[in-house]
Amino acid sequence: MAENQPKRVVVAIDGPAGAGKSTIAKALAERLGFTYIDTGAMYRAVALWAVRQSVDFADPHRMEQLALAAAIELAPGRIQLNGEDVTAAIRTPEVSSGASKIAVIPGVRRAMVAKQREIGQKVSVVMEGRDIGTVVFPDADLKVFLDASVEERVRRRLLESRAKGVETSESVLAAQMKERDQRDSTRADAPLAQAPDAVYLDSTHLSEDEVAEAILKMLRARVTNGKEYQSHE
């Protein structure tokens, strides 16, 4: 019976800041009908619950308890917390600030990783980050390490910032990116690293569509074997 079941597929995209991971992961999930695991939104949901429960972001024990207890569901462009659609509620400055603070708590990270794996056991997923292929989904069907030159990554971030109405200089962004790369690569807990079995993809001279097509081609070669993918229900 299992032979006739559509195969659940996990696509893991890792890489440094500004490589285009989020854009590509969302586009791939949409084209494939897979669930995009938005880790940022998941941390924001926990931070929102902490705000509502008046829990101090700096209390690792209580934050871990909330992260473990949070019932988080993802759908294309939406997120639910404990049965409530909180897509808009998680976008406040207070919640954004809280999400970045709680994301460094090991217990919260462990709880989120467990939830991410749980989603990946139920439906086909695309997930991006810095330790997806090495820590979160080490058995992913396809692992891609998406990279680009520092100059190109800075250029993309500059365009992103301007699109949001935030004025910043190229030199400031370059310094921030260098610091981020250093921090991500050297942190003790789940550092940025290319998994040994990940495919390296340099997106410096590629358009978004070209990157997506390259990954889709890899995926078709890697996992179809004539079978259909299982998209989200």
Draw up the topology in text.
Blueprint: E1 10-14, H1 21-32, E2 35-37, H2 39-52, H3 60-69, E3 72-75, E4 78-81, E5 84-85, H4 93-102, H5 106-122, E6 125-129, H6 132-136, E7 142-147, H7 150-163, H8 170-186, E8 199-202, H9 208-224
Parallel strand pairs: 1-6, 1-7, 2-6, 7-8
Antiparallel strand pairs: 3-4, 4-5
List the keywords:
alpha/beta; single chain; globular; 233 residues
Report on the architecture of this protein.
The chain is an alpha/beta fold and 233 residues long. 50% of the residues lie in helices and 14% in strands. The protein contains 9 helices and 8 strands. The strands form 2 sheets. Strands 2-6-1-7-8 form a 5-stranded parallel sheet, sandwiched between helices. A 3-stranded antiparallel sheet has the order 3-4-5, covered by helices on one side. Strand 3 and strand 4 form a beta hairpin.
Residue-averaged pLDDT: 89
Q: What is the helix/strand order?
A: EHEHHEEEHHEHEHHEH
What is the helical fraction, as a range of percent?
Answer: 40-55%
Amino- and carboxy-terminal Cα gap: 19 Å
Major beta sheet summary: 5 strands, parallel
Strand content: 5-15%
Q: How would the global form be characterised?
A: globular
Number of strands: 8
Helical segment count: 9
Strand order of the biggest β-sheet: 2-6-1-7-8
Structural class: alpha/beta
Oligomeric state of the chains present here: single chain
Low-confidence regions: none
Query: From the alpha-carbon coordinates, what is the Rg to the nearest angstrom?
Result: 18 Å
